[in-house]
Design a protein that fits this description.
Chain lengths: 261, 355
Amino acid sequence: MVTIRLDGLGAFHGARLVLSDVSTPIFRGGEVVAVIGPNAAGKSTLFKRIAGLLKGPGRVCLEGAAKGPDGICYMPQDTAANAVLTVYESILLARKQGSAWSVSDGDLALIDGILAALSISDLAFRNVGELSGGQRQVVSIAQTLAREPEILLMDEPTSALDLHRQVEVLSFMRGLARKQGIAVLIAIHDLNQALRFADKCIVIAKGRMIACGTPEDVVTPALLRDVYRVEARIERCSRGIGHVMVDGVAAETAATASIAA
Amino acid sequence: MSSEPAALSAKQGRGLYRALVLRKQLILAGLALALLLSLCIDLALGPARYSLDQVVLALVSPGSVPLQVRVVLWDIRLPIALMAVVVGAALSVAGAQMQTILNNPLASPFTLGISAAASFGAALALAFGVALIPAAIEYIVPLNAFVVAMLTALVIHLLSLKRGVTVETIVLLGIALVFTFNALLSLVQYLSSEQALAAVVFWTMGSLTKATWPKLIITSLILLATLPIFVRRAWALTALRLGEDKAASFGVKVARLRLETMMMVSLLAAIPVAFVGTIGFIGLVGPHIARMLIGEDQRFFLPASALSGALILSASSVASKSLIPGTIFPIGIVTSLIGIPFFISLILSNVRRSW
């Protein structure tokens, strides 16, 4: 089984250290880890550092990955593209990087399967430039899956999706993680979705890791006040899943000031 | 998330993709045939007109046609006609890759000032014999053109990496570079002797008539040396059009790919300019026609760009001989007359964000 652990991980943007000292316990294949934190906290930076796209101190300890570091696949935040490529071609493109020109039946069968699994077969021969934000996001997930990840880093994969699609995509990702033994790290703003779908949770703020544990242990009124600066309660629904109920904006406290610093 | 109807239509996906590939291959074959036809017409036209049968016979079996026809076709017209094909392909491929790495549909060697830079470098050699890199005398002109073009390409590349630089900024920068090098070229012309001035002026108009077999071979070799490198990187280059972050997430070494491609592009753009002068808009129009016909999968886009660029310049060569019988227009004038309306329509469509 694949495992990943971060050991004192940091990242540079140019010469500036923008992320430091992120150390986590071991995350195992099959687990979904939510990475939460306010805007510009360093979530994307953390993912880029894990994926090897940024340099910095510390280590990414990977074990049991058949493809080694190539098994880590990063799905960046949604960006519009105006390329004259069909969705099908754009997914094939993700799969074939570093490979020969020829496209095998196996490649095409995999893409057909991904399109069907994500219910976007009807988009297959639309141009990527014509897609809505939500459609682009699901296509982006399909591109990432075409690379057959062992560790999957998804940067806000549901930010442009409607509620139905969010639940659908997150349920699918959790099912895929369990079925294929993939460790899935998802940067997400919706704390209720994190509480509902994640097995573990990392909190990043101001380029540092503030907390790590189960979502129930991590997402607390104190954290919401100190990191998000909102007064909120956590209420449990009938199925025992926590739900964040926001009461209002919190006043500045010594704790929020220290995180902000 | 899967559903039965989606799964059913997914099975058709494979077939539709294979059909799409076949369609693209047929378009490529069509372009190649059109190019062959244009090449034959180009060879047939001139002060002495030959039939297509004669041209084909002279090419396939030179011994079976009269000596005069053989000399005219093989020694005079063939280098020029083939130069049109090779230069058109080189400029179009250069434009296609500039548009790819800068993610900018208006990029081309001509619009970004690389052709103007090459003109200035070459003019330095033509007018004053200045060699920016010490070399044998016959190679000073192309080497100068290449050095100045490459430095310009590097400047564009470095500026394109700056934060906040948009598609429009790069185009405006290109216009500034065109003006700068044109001003410098005028200065060279002003300071040069009468004989050198004539050479520089004629050469800036762009003309294929100075094509020779050695020039054709050098240009072809550069095209043949760079094309396989682009071909090997087809998947990575295509990924750049999905955005830098997306390409990097696919494992593409974006900065290195851009830099290496820009260097090859400046070589592809500079050498034809050094030999045949400034031929504008092929690097802009060629890739756009290819993109409209075949999309941006570089496995097809690259050959389609080369073929459409070659076809446009070969057809322009035919037009330059046909407009006024007995007169051969400098081909740069013909391509500019075709290219400028195309460029304006692209700018307008760019404003509407429909590209």
